Amino acid sequence: MTTASADGGWLARNRMTITPILFLLPGLLFFSVYVVFPIFQSFYISTFEWNGLGELEEQGRYVGLQNYHELFYYDRNFEISLWNNVRWLVLYLLAIPAGLFIALFLNQTIVGIRVYKSLFFFPFVISQVVVGLVFGWFYLPNDGLFDVLVGWFGIDIKGGVIGNPNTATYGIIVAGLWPQTAYCMILYLTGLNAVDPEQIEAGRLDGAKGWRMLWHVILPQLRPATFIAFVVTIIGALRSFDLISIMTNGGPFGSTRVLSFYMFEKALSEYGFRMGYGSAIAVVLFLIMLIFIGYFLWQMYQDEKALRR
Amino acid sequence: MFPTPIEKRSQSAQLTYQAMVPLVLILWLLPLIAVAVFSIKPLADFTQGNYWGLPSSFEGINNYTRVFTDSPMPQYLWNSVLITVPTVIGVVALSCMTGFALGIYRFRGNLLIFFMFIAGNFVPFQILMVPVRDLTLGLGLYDTKAGLVLFHIAFQTGFCTLFMRNFIRALPFELIEAARVEGVAEWRIFWYVVLPLMKPAIAALAVLIFTFIWNDYFWAIVLTQGPDAQPVTAGITSFNSQFIAQYHLMSAGSIVAALPPVLMFFMMQRHFIAGLTLGAVK
After folding, report:
1. For chain A, what is the domain count?
2. Between 20 and 30 A from B125 (CA), which of A232, B61, B190, B254?
C-alpha cells in the first residue's frame, strides 16, 4: 500500500504501515498488560498453592494440576456453584422474550410514550449494588412487600425468599432479570423501529396477523437485536457477582454461590487467601465463557466477511 | 409498524391502552418507588412495622441531609467522580486511536487484533483478578484511585475499540481518500477529518462508560479498601453497616449513590441509547 509519495523519506514511504502501528500502540499496550497477559498468568498461578504474599515462585508451591483435582473430586461448594451458574444461564435468558414482550407493548405512538420508554429502561441505569439492596428489602422476611403479597395467598417461605436455601438463588436471579429485561427491551425497541414497513404490508396482504406475523415477518428482521441480546445476557449471567455479594453474600449456607463469587471468596476474603485455588476456579469459569466467546466471534466473523469491501 | 398502531383500533382499545401503560409502569418500577418512599419516612415507621404504608411524617430533607453530614458519603461520591471522569477521558482517547487504526488501514493482523479486543471485553473479571491485583500492588497503586483508573481504562478499551472501529467503518471512505490525494498527512486526516465526524460516537461512549464505571463494584472491592479511595458503590456497603436496619437512611443513601448515572442518562438519552444499541440494527 505504499504507492503515494514515493519521493518522500523512509517515513513518508512507509506511512501506511507506521501510522496504524503508532495509533494502535498505546491502546494495545494497556490492553495487553491489564487484560491479555493476566489471562495467561492466571493459568500459571492456578498450578500453585499460594497465599498471595511475596513472589509467586518463592513463596508459592508448585502443585501441578492438584488444584483442579481438588475442585472436581473433593469440593462440594464448587459443584453447587457450577449448578447455580447453569440456573443463572438458563433463567437469565428469559430476559430476552420478556424484553421483546415489553418492547412490543410499548411500540406505539401515544402522547408521552418517549418518557414511558425511558422510565421502563430505568432499572438498567442503576448500579447492581442498589438493585441488590432494593430487592433485598423487597424480599425481607415478614416485613418485605413480597412476603406480604404472597402471604395473601397463604404462601409462607421460611426465612424469606433469600433467607431460604431453596429459593434464594431464584430470588437473586429475578432481581437480575429486572435490569437485564430493560436492556433487552431497549435493543428490541430500536430493532422494531427499523423493521421494514413494506414487508409488514406484504405480510398483511398474505393474511398474516398477530403471532404468525411476529414469528414469520418480524422476528427474522429482529435477528441482529436478538443476537446482541443473547450475547449481553449470556455474559451478564456468567458475570453475576454484585447481586449475590450484596443480597446474600453467598449464603444461606453457601447455597447462592456461583463460580465468580466462589472464586472471590477463596482468593480474597476472610476464608483465606488461596490465590492458586481461586485462579483454578477462574480458569474453569473462563473456559465455560470461552465456548460462548468463540461462538460470538465466529458469528461476527461471518458478518465481517459479508461486509468486506 | 408492528404491532398494529393503536390509533387504528377502536376508541375503547385506545383508552384501555392509555390507561394500561402507566399502570404497568408503576408495577415495573414498584421496588424503586418503594425505596423512594422509604427514604422520606421517619425511623419510627420502621420500628412500628409500617414498612409499606404511607409515611407518618415527611422526613425527606432530614434523611438526605444526614446522608451527607453523618457519613463519609460526600467523600465516596467525590472518589467516584475522580475515578469515573479520568477513565472516560482516557478510554475515549485510546479508543479513538485504536478505532481509527483498525477502521481505516488494511494490514495483516488487523482483524486478529480487532477480535482480540472484542474477546478480551467478554472475559470474566475473575480470570484477571489475581494478576491485576498483584500488578496494582507492585506499582504501589493498591487502594488508590489511580490504580482503579488505569485498570478501567485498559479494560474498557476493548469494548470501545469495537464501538469506534465499527463507527469509523461506516463513515464515507471517500473523504479520507480525497484528503490523501490532497497530500494531507495521516495524523492530520485523523485530527481534522475523522475526529470531527466522530463526535456522536464520542458522546455515546462517554455516557455509556460513565455509567459502567460509576456502577462498578467488583473492581472497587478488589483494588481499594477504605474511604480514601473507594467509590460510592463500595462505600454504600460500609454506609449500610454504619446505619444498620435504619432503612430510611440506607434507602436515602442508595438513591444518592444511584443518582448520577440516572441524571446522565436522562440528559444524554439519545446518545446513551445509540451507544447501547449499536449493532441492533443492520
Report:
1. 2
2. B254
DSSP state of A36: I
Is residue A2 assigned to a domain? Answer: no
Residue at A283 is within a domain: yes
Maximum distance among all alpha carbons in chain B? 78
Q: Which of B6, B67, B123 to mutate to test the interface with A (most CBs of A within 10 A)?
A: B123
pLDDT in tens, chain B (282 residues): 788 888 888 889 899 999 999 999 999 999 899 889 999 999 888 888 888 888 888 888 999 999 999 999 999 999 999 999 999 999 999 999 999 999 999 888 999 999 999 999 999 999 999 999 999 999 999 999 999 999 999 999 999 999 999 999 989 999 999 999 998 988 999 999 999 999 999 999 999 999 999 999 999 999 998 889 999 999 999 898 888 888 899 999 999 999 999 999 988 888 888 888 877 776
Give residue for cell 461486509. A307
- Please answer yes or no on whether A34 and B276 come within 8 Å at the CB atom: no
* B251 and A CB contact within 8 Å: yes
Asked whether residue A67 is domain-assigned, the answer is: no
Residues A39 and A91 in one domain: no
For chain A, how are helix, strand and coil distributed in percent, rounded to 5? 70, 0, 25
Residue A6 buriedness (CB in 10 A; 0-12 / 13-18 / 19+): exposed
The Cα-based distances of A143 to A110, A175, B53 in angstroms read: 38, 18, 11
B 100-159 residues inside an 8 A Cβ radius of A: 100-102, 104-107, 110-111, 113, 115-120, 122-135, 150-151, 153-155, 157-158
Do A21 and A109 sit in the same domain of this protein?
no
ipTM, two decimals, is 0.92
CATH number corresponding to B69-276: 1.10.3720.10
CB contact under 8 A, B130 and A282: yes
Instruction: Decide if A281 and B126 are in contact by the 8 Å CB cutoff.
Output: yes
Question: For residue A68, is it within any domain?
Answer: no
- A14, amino acid identity: N
Residues of A within 8 A of B6 (CB-CB) are 108-110
Backbone angles phi, psi at A269, to 5 degrees: -120, -170
